[in-house]
């Protein structure tokens, strides 16, 4: 019985043959289905975390003020407009989470929409940085908020391109 060949040369042992097979298997690119599974997990994670914002939409005003002070911001303005804006932004983030979860549930159908979402998320992150700079929030807030959003948008886009 002839032994398998590598480049015209016989393998010196079965172990060498199996090592080469394993190396070749490990160097294969991740199949699109696996990358789509990772995309789904990323979207479910972001969606799930964003759902937590619904809690902030209904939390007592006292908690909003205390959290603001704990984060090192100037005292939270005790104004109906300020609470209105804070609560509505929380509702918006919560519904973004719902949207992410719906899209993640059927990526075969919604992949083109997720591609647009990735672009929009990246642009939104840049917009956040501009708004944060105008608002005068601390640098750590701007970097944490806008960089994570830009990174998330780029990561979404990367997974979408490799999930086709």
UniProtKB/TrEMBL annotation:
Keywords: Membrane, Transmembrane, Transmembrane helix
Residues annotated as transmembrane: 41-65, 85-104, 116-134, 140-160
Name used for this protein in its record: Uncharacterized protein
Origin species: Rubripirellula lacrimiformis
